[in-house]
């Protein structure tokens, strides 16, 4: 694992030894379900990589339009979640595609290293909440990590773009709210606000699912 200090980020390019640490590409939405995706800001701007502290652990992050996105390997480790299980959760049909990015990590220049870097999945603050909401957990560790990601986003990006799906909880798909958030995850107020969008959904011919059903 390499340091992320003073790193530059740009959109996905073919791998070369001289490329920056993170080269980005958007992941495709699940093919079996047509989602109504929230609109992210046009022309995303990637900042320099950083390492954030979570209970003494170092979690890599990259600002996208000022909002920190977090490395899945470290998130899984903080949750004591096997990496393979974490990968399945964030690529499942229930996980919103707009809440994840895939990057390729470039190793330190070394003439003896000939292997290409592997992909690293990054999650938005909302994506961190989705990960903790989908995992099989009693809630304590998941709530703490989701609340931390939300606080870090508010600290590093106090004025995000209105409606940025990386920051604000949105309908999971047409007319369906996400699972009811845990008390300390920091997302309950946003979930409650989604109820007021049901009128607009009905006007589009959508049928919202009852809160009790979406909370299970």
Topology (elements, then pairings):
Layout: E1 9-11, E2 22-26, E3 50-54, E4 57-64, E5 67-71, H1 72-78, H2 83-90, E6 100-105, E7 119-123, H3 125-134, H4 140-156, H5 188-194, H6 198-203, H7 211-214
Parallel strand pairs: 1-2
Antiparallel strand pairs: 2-6, 3-4, 4-5, 5-7, 6-7
- Mean pLDDT over the residues: 75
Beta-strand level of the residues, as a percent range?
15-25%
The number of distinct β-strands equals 7
- The helix/strand class is alpha+beta
For the record, give the distance between the C-alpha atoms at the N and C termini, rounded to a whole number.
Answer: 38 Å
Task: Please characterize this protein's 3D structure.
It is a single chain. The chain has helices at residues 72-78, 83-90, 125-134, 140-156, 188-194, 198-203, 211-214, and strands at 9-11, 22-26, 50-54, 57-64, 67-71, 100-105, 119-123. By secondary structure, the chain is α+β, with helices and mostly antiparallel strands. The protein has one domain (9-165). The protein has a seven-stranded mixed beta sheet with strand order 1-2-6-7-5-4-3. A hairpin with a 2-residue loop joins strand 3 (50-54) and strand 4. The termini are far apart. The relative contact order is 0.15.
Provide a concise account of the structure shown.
By secondary structure, the protein is of the alpha+beta class. 27% of the residues lie in helices and 17% in strands.
């Amino acid at each position: 694992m390499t340091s992320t200090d003073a790193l530059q980020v740009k959109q996905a390019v073919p791998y070369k030894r001289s490329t920056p640490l993170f080269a980005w590409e958007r992941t495709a939405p699940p093919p079996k379900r047509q989602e109504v995706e929230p609109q992210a800001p046009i022309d995303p701007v990637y900042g320099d990589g950083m390492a954030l502290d979570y209970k003494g652990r170092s979690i890599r992050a990259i600002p996208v339009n000022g909002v920190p996105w977090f490395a899945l390997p470290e998130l899984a480790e903080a949750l004591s979640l096997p990496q393979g299980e974490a990968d399945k959760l964030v690529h499942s049909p229930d996980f919103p595609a707009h809440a994840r990015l895939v990057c390729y990590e470039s190793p330190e220049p070394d003439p003896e290293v000939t292997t290409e870097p592997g992909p690293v999945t990054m999650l938005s603050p909302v994506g961190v909440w989705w990960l903790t909401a989908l995992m099989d957990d009693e809630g304590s560790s998941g709530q703490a990590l989701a609340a931390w990601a939300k606080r870090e986003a508010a600290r590093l990006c106090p004025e995000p773009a209105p409606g940025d799906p990386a920051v604000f909880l949105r309908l999971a798909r047409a007319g369906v709210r996400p699972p009811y958030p845990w008390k300390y995850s920091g997302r309950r107020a946003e979930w409650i606000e989604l109820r007021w969008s049901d009128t607009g959904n009905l006007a589009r011919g959508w049928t919202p699912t009852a809160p009790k059903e979406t909370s299970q």
